[in-house]
Design brief:
- With 124 residues, the chain is an all-alpha fold.
- The chain contains 5 helices and no strands.
- The relative contact order is 0.17.
């Protein structure tokens, strides 16, 4: 039961990280210190998708599930938990690259807004 709870906690942590990677740039519009945390997370998240790397949280979750007497799953967190909700079918390399580029695009918009606001503030 403890291992299952820990595995579920990893899923919540992982989901929080994925959401932070996606929207953290917009949160930085509110909290000026946040880019110091968000930019490395966004680079890691985009690189994970673009290069097909495996996040270290996925094997940890799988080991905890096995220790709890359950079964692990193949692939990564995004493929196992998010893609069945977002897309029918399985994760392809093209979708993975699209997700990575999407992370970069969303954050380019957010940080573009942040830079534009900084320029307006300096002009005043």
């Amino acid at each position: 039961m403890l291992y299952e709870a820990l595995a579920n906690g990893i899923v919540v942590l992982h989901l929080g990280f994925v959401v932070f990677v996606g929207v953290g740039g917009f949160l930085a519009l509110r909290w000026s210190w946040l880019p110091w945390l968000h930019l490395p997370a966004a680079v890691w998240g985009a690189a994970n998708e673009l290069f097909g790397w495996s996040c270290p949280l996925t094997p940890l979750e799988n080991r905890l599930r096995e220790a709890a007497g359950g079964t692990s799953y193949a692939g990564g967190f995004v493929e196992h938990y998010l893609l069945p909700v977002l897309y029918p079918g399985h994760l392809t390399r093209g979708i993975q690259i699209g997700l990575g580029l999407g992370v970069l695009a969303i954050n380019a918009i957010a940080y573009g807004l942040l830079l534009a606001r900084g320029r307006r503030t300096r002009r005043r």
